Amino acid sequence: MTIQIDIGAKSAGTRATFDLEELLATRLLVQGNSGSGKSHLLRRLLEQSAPWVQQCVIDPEGDFVTLADAFGHVVIDAAACERDLLAIADRVRRHRVSVVFNLEGLEVDKQMRAAATFLNGLFEAERDVWHPMLVVVDEAQLFAPAAATDADEESRRQSLAAMTNLMCRGRKRGLAGVIATQRLAKLAKNVAAEASNFLMGRTFLDIDMARAADLLGMERRQAETFRNLDRGAFVALGPAIGRKPEQVRIGPVQTAARGGGPKLTPLPETAVEDAAGLIFRKGAEEARPRAAAPAPSADEVMARLDAARPEAAPPATDLFAGAERASAIATVITEMMAEPEAGFQPVSLLYQDFLVRCRIARIAGEPLDLPSFRKELALAKAGVGAEEAGADGAWDQATLVSASLPEDMRGVFLLVAKAALAKAPCPSDAEIARAYGTRSTGRARRLLAYMEERGFIQTATDLRGARIAELPDLGWRTAPGLAELGAA
Question: Helicase HerA central domain spans which residues (predicted)?
């Protein structure tokens, strides 16, 4: 069955149509300067072919996510672990779901890595799921650059290899590449050369006009045609659309990009004095957080102890029993750890401070021995409160798993477990270092590596550079969290 996709009207007044089966076999290249209508053309092609073929859009700016509401595309956030992206790509091919791979918000080198990973996942699917798929890559010069770019060399190499596979070897796997670029001169030649269908829009640079004319078999003197094209007009050639170059005007679309083009709007009517205030006066949302209070000096601590000592201390009585006594001890340890430097003190000094505070609080009875204090200290360093340390069986299981670790590492494991239980972001290196009793973030990372080698945790990094920690024994997983505080 032959499927004809209507993309607009030719200059002669007839309809411009794509033979969809031929397009899948021969691929398509679109060129045009910014504002020439490339995205509009791609959207028209996607909308018209959506009922007939599975689609995947590699979308660096998030322009095509609006296809989801009208045509049922699934939007995939590219900021995920590489192994997750590979698994998702395999499921996309297996279940024949049309998707938009949204790269918005990632830096260029991370966009290249994410696109390469996802395209490789599509390419490496098993033979029995090689169904036809239209793979549309907008701003293809980002993913298949002709020369070195600001992105790191490894990202460029991976992305270029994936794009080359798509255009050179994808046909046998059912993958039909449709690539759009602002400039042919910036696109790798071995990627562009594999397309047999062309739509050339408005172009101004001589080198790009000359290459476009060569691809369309036009004489060099005819290259000026591309400079005079209107927005939304393209010169088309290829076995899927026509055997001779002919101008095509792209038809209307049902959906629109989220941002749209720039629209002129009146400036706000603001008095000069008020405008100056808006610029030079700090707003409430810009107020800086208050700095933490400095740690008390040794003299201040001794003075506080003297002031708290009663003139005639009565014989100690057991004011707290059972759960009340345990709660009072937990309160003392929590107050200790609230001081900024407490997390970096040796356990022996903290234990002495703990005994003194227990006497001040008049907690009678046998004090905690050092091993019991270490256990409570690990919970306090992890920030574990009553809601976690209560009767919940899940948290009891986490405590049981942590018992297999050395005592000084249990606080770190419980800190990660607390975040995973609450589905909160993974703790940063600084938070892990403090729970371990050090200021060295390098030691914190080595500690995580040690725990990972022994199977207590598994870490992964998403495309934004955020760390995700999994606890295999518990089946818990944290949300992505930045390893370095203040990182973008």
Answer: 10-68
As a whole number, mean pLDDT of residues 158-177 equals: 92
The two counts, helices (H) then strands (E), for the chain are 19, 15
Share of the chain above pLDDT 90, in %: 27
Query: Which pLDDT band holds residue 113 (cuts at 50, 70, 90)?
Result: very high
Question: What's the CA gap between 336 and 332, in Å, rounded?
Answer: 6
HSE (CB half, 13 Å, CA atoms) of 360?
Answer: 18
Asked if residue 160 and residue 118 are part of one domain, the reply reads: yes
In a domain, 282, yes or no: no
Half-sphere exposure (CA, 13 Å, Cβ side) for 194? 22
Pinpoint the alpha helices (H) of 182-322: 189-192, 206-215, 272-280, 298-308
Instruction: Specify the CATH number for the domain of residue 440.
Output: 1.10.10
Contacts for 103-107 with beta carbons within 8 Å, 24 or more apart? 103/58, 103/59, 103/60, 103/61, 103/62, 103/78, 104/59, 104/60, 104/61, 104/62, 105/62, 105/79, 105/464, 106/78, 106/79, 106/463, 106/464
CATH at 88: 3.40.50.300
> Which carries the bigger pLDDT value, residue 58 or residue 271?
58
